[in-house]
Design a protein that fits this description.
Length: 202
């Protein structure tokens, strides 16, 4: 049996791995009786995630609310949507992994408006680098997203570990030849620690 190469590079998703939306998001937005569903939101957000559109996201959301009959001011939507709760315990794990000599990079699907909020909170400061989908022009789980990172970092694919709370993204990374692990959203920081220890980077 061939022994696996040690992991030199760790790629971490943001939402559901390092940061979470407050419960108010569910009650104020997703819990609205006329809310059209998450897929409708994802469809509106899609061109912004890949940088095809860079301006007009608030207006696009306002139109979604209007056409869906959701009597929620767009300001209220973004007030809940912008309250990102970064798990400081997860960042401590990131710091520990980096202290062991493993390079750690953020690998997240975001559009420019939300990425700016994350950066304003200092999230990038804990990483060796960050790969936001809107800047790359492609997003997870597309192979192009992972190929871009591998080329940019000049690393061997079998020495990279990617962690995400969404299975389709994990599968996309594996198809690109990268080691990948699923960290369930509900498992929180304890789940992240288990994954990192299992793969020997902590």
């Amino acid at each position: 049996m061939t022994k696996a190469h040690p992991i030199d590079t760790l790629l971490l998703d943001a939402d559901g791995v390092l940061q979470y939306l407050p419960k108010g998001w569910a009650s104020e937005v997703l819990g609205h009786p006329r809310w059209p569903g998450m897929q409708a939101l994802l469809d509106v957000e899609a061109p912004f995630l890949t940088g095809q559109r860079t301006d007009g996201f608030p207006e696009a959301i306002a139109e979604l609310l209007r056409t869906s009959g959701v009597d929620l001011p767009v300001e209220a939507f973004f007030a809940a949507w912008s309250l990102i709760l970064i798990d400081q315990r997860a960042l401590e794990l990131v710091d520990q992994v980096r202290a062991r000599g493993v390079k750690v990079h953020l690998a997240t699907n975001q559009q420019s408006m939300r990425a700016a909020i994350m950066r304003d909170q200092g999230l990038d400061d804990h990483f060796d680098g960050a790969y936001y989908s809107y800047e790359l022009g492609c997003k997870k789980p597309d192979r192009a997203y992972f190929d871009h990172i591998v080329r940019d970092l000049r690393v061997q694919r079998d020495r990279v570990l990617f962690v995400d709370d969404t299975w389709v993204n994990v599968e996309g990374a594996r198809r690109a030849g990268i080691r990948a692990a699923h960290k369930p959203y509900a498992d929180g920081v304890a789940g992240l620690e288990r994954v990192l220890r299992w793969h020997g980077v902590l």
